[in-house]
Every structure is written in C-alpha cells, then in structure tokens.
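Pasting two entries for a bug report.
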Amino acid sequence: MRQSSYSGAVRKAILQGNLELANQIISDHIVEPGMRAELTASVNNQFLERAINAGKIDETRQLLPFLRTAEERSRALSKLAVKLAGDGSRTRALQIMDEARNLVSGEPVNSRQLIEQIWLARAYFDD
C-alpha cells in the first residue's frame, strides 16, 4: 500500500513540474522494479519534453538513451528540430533533422518505422 502512496506522490510531483522531487521519491521509496521503471520513464519523458520545449540541444541528447526505440529517439529529435526552426535556427534544425532521419532511414520493417518516416517527412516539409 505504501508503494501506491509514493507512486501517487511521484505523479503529483510530475504534474506540478517538480521533476527533481519526483526522482527523489522514486530513489528513496519505490522498490518494486516494474513500478520504479514505469515512474522513472515518466519522469525522464517529462525532462525530455521540457528540454525540447526549451530548445536545449545538449540536454535533449543526454536524455535520448532513456527512450526505448530508435523511432522514439527520432521523434524527439525531430520535435527539437521543429522547435529550433521556429526559433530561427534553421541550419541547426536541419542538422538535427538529419540525425533523426538517420535513426530510421532505410526501408521500414514495421508500421512504427513507416509512421516515423512519414512524420519526419512532414517535419521537413513544415520546416
């Protein structure tokens, strides 16, 4: 039952944007491996979204290894590129888009890869 209370506290901290507190609660109180992994992934995703929305390239790159698939990493990079392009950093945005494309280039072997390639093409077009 305690794990459930701590899990709720982590989610509340995430919703309030206090990601450091969320990580601290996880580290100190969540011992069940599945719950720990799920909550840690939620916190990392929030850190990633925050970095992308702020246009922080290095911070975004540091968080990419926490994403499970190449498609997820590609999507994060392409979101960052769109943000940078919107902020006027077109050259840097194109470099980031190329990185994203390299993660999912080639003939798609599943629907996720195809969807990501379509999303990337659209992002290039929107840029």
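Entry 2 (this is the one that rendered wrong in the viewer):
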Amino acid sequence: MQWGGNYQYNLLKLINMQDECMRIISKSKYNALPLPLYIQNKVLPIQDLVKLEILKFVHKFFHNKLPGPLLRTYVTNQTVHDHSTRQSNDPHSRAYNYALIKMSYLHQGPEIWSKVPMSLKEITRPPLFKSKIKTYLFNLLQS
C-alpha cells in the first residue's frame, strides 16, 4: 500500500522490473507485451496489487477488523449527508488540496471501493474477500 501513494513516474522503475520478471518467468522475448504474460501467469500488475491492498484495508475498516485508531480513518456517506443514496454505506471521499494525499489510501480507498460490486462488499470473512476481490481485479485486467 505504501508504493501506491506515489507519482506514476516514481513507480515506473518498479513496473518495468515486474514486467521484466514476467518475461523471464514465461521465457518470452525481451520486447513481449507484458499484459498477456500477466494474464497467462495469473499475476496482478503492481498497480492492481496496490488496489488489492487498499481494498483489503477498506474491507477491514467496514468489518471493524482494524486497530482502534485506524477505525477513524473513514466516515461513511450517511454520516455526512442527511439523505439516503445507493452509496450511503460507502466511505465518504473527502476533498483534499494536496496531490500526495489524493494519491494515498485516504483518498483512493473510497474511490476504489465505490467501484466494487455490492456482492463483494458484503463478504464478511477477510480470506474469502481477498480471494474474490483478486478474481474481480483479474477479470478487470482481462477485459
């Protein structure tokens, strides 16, 4: 999760290293496109691994599985708005003026969580959630 809150160009070296590792593992040519290799080897790219970790954190938040101080990381939309909406149980995305905070899990968590299907959000067991959310992210990668 630490690397996720960073500028894309700072992650480029790490992304390139992962792409190179995928080429080595699959014994592909040096210029082979990495996306088919990720799919073939059922590995998530680094950007999706960051999303996975953020989603696991938000899931633990909603199911009270975080240590006490971290349970105040997010507030839900229903505590901010008086009216009921479809996303009233989702974490509220606060407005931040700093680019670094916008890239952190504080801002990215609500953004990513809002795109997750309700059927996955309702899973209570962390190991099952991790398994299902990995499958979900992998399916997004393939489409």
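Dev reply: Rendering is fixed now. As a check, the viewer should reflect this: Residues 44-142 form one domain.
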